[in-house]
Design a protein that fits this description.
The protein has 256 residues and is α/β, with parallel strands linked by helices. It has one domain (10-248): Rossmann fold (3-Layer(aba) Sandwich). Helix content is 45%, strand content 15%. It has eight helices and seven strands. A seven-stranded parallel sheet has the order 3-2-1-4-5-6-7, sandwiched between helices. The protein binds nicotinamide-adenine-dinucleotide (NAD). Residues 15, 17-21, 39-41, 44, 64-67, 92-96, 119, 146, 148, 191, 193-194, 196, 198-199 line the site of nicotinamide-adenine-dinucleotide (NAD). Its EC number is 1.1.-.-. This is SDR family oxidoreductase.
């Protein structure tokens, strides 16, 4: 199994225990990538790795915390120990609990602001800090970060979440411009409302879905596979000349 040229390459999925990260890890595993699944939830990461293995792929799992530098370094140590190096990184983890109290700049609890910046934004700095040297040692690599439609649309709530996601765009362009000539491509995907298992299981799912449909120009909301397909493309040689971009994948929610 595996696409030509991809077989055996190593990807770290930082936040692959559920939702978009898990779906993307499965897709990359099915394409022949060797996948290190990292997540705050160690058993969730192990569950994704098991599904990849059951589908005939190669995967391992590690518990780690995007908020803790030593823990992020440990994620990459594990990739080297398990698979001998790193060719690609999918940054997808985010503290989706903090966003519930991410009110507005007048009322915001500063602990929520700090937590969001620490995990959702600084966490991606750390994964790239430890991942890029490993990719350079292999002659280059590919990074896909996860932004959000929230980075582009004005919203009356969740300012910390939106600011962190907007910052990911700047980080993406920084990495692409600093290391592009050395063979590192760094892009971001900005999903719109994507119906993960967590979102579908919310008690107000019908209202969530109806509200989301009003914001987009598509007959349906997003599925995790929509984002996984985009990430797989950005990781592939078909995207060899795509660098420094934030790609909105959201049923036309954001048009620019
Ligand atoms: N689902 C959507 O509608 C949507 C829309 C736009 C952007 N996004 C982004 O997509 C990404 C995935 O979201 P999802 O909807 O699949 O959510 P999810 O909650 O299913 O997945 C997030 C994963 O990140 C992990 N995580 C949380 N904190 C962590 C930490 N400190 N260290 C390591 N891992 C941690 C969680 O355990 C979880 O497995 C996030 O970056 C999110 O902001 C999602």
């Amino acid at each position: 199994m595996g696409l030509p040229g991809l077989s055996g390459k190593v990807v770290v999925v930082a936040g692959g225990g559920s939702g978009i990260g898990a779906a993307t890890a499965l897709r990359l595993g099915a394409q022949g990538w060797r996948v290190l699944v990292g997540d705050l939830g160690e058993s969730a990461a192990a569950g994704t790795a098991k599904l990849i293995a059951e589908a005939g792929g190669t995967a391992a799992a590690v518990g780690f915390d995007l908020g803790e530098p030593d823990s992020v370094r440990g994620l990459f140590d594990a990739a080297v120990a398990e698979f001998g190096g790193v060719d690609a990184l999918f940054n997808v983890g985010a503290d989706m609990g903090a966003v519930r109290n991410d009110s507005n700049v007048v009322d915001i609890d500063l602990e929520i602001w700090d937590r969001t910046m620490t995990v959702n934004l600084r966490g991606y700095v750390l994964t790239m800090k430890y991942g890029i040297p490993l990719m350079l040692a292999r002659g280059g690599g590919v990074i896909v970060n996860t932004s959000s439609a929230a980075a582009f649309q004005g919203e009356p709530a969740r300012p910390a979440y939106a600011t962190a996601k907007a910052g990911i765009g700047a980080l993406t362009r920084h990495v692409a411009s600093r290391w592009g000539r050395e063979g590192i491509r760094c892009n971001a995907v900005a999903p719109g409302f994507t119906a993960t298992e967590n979102i579908r299981s919310a008690p107000h799912w019908p209202e969530l879905q109806a509200g989301a449909l009003k914001r987009m120009h598509s007959p349906r909301v997003g599925e995790t596979g929509d984002i996984a397909a985009t990430v797989a493309f950005l990781m592939s040689e078909d995207a060899a000349w795509v660098n420094g971009q934030v790609l909105n994948v959201d049923g036309g929610t954001i048009m620019r």
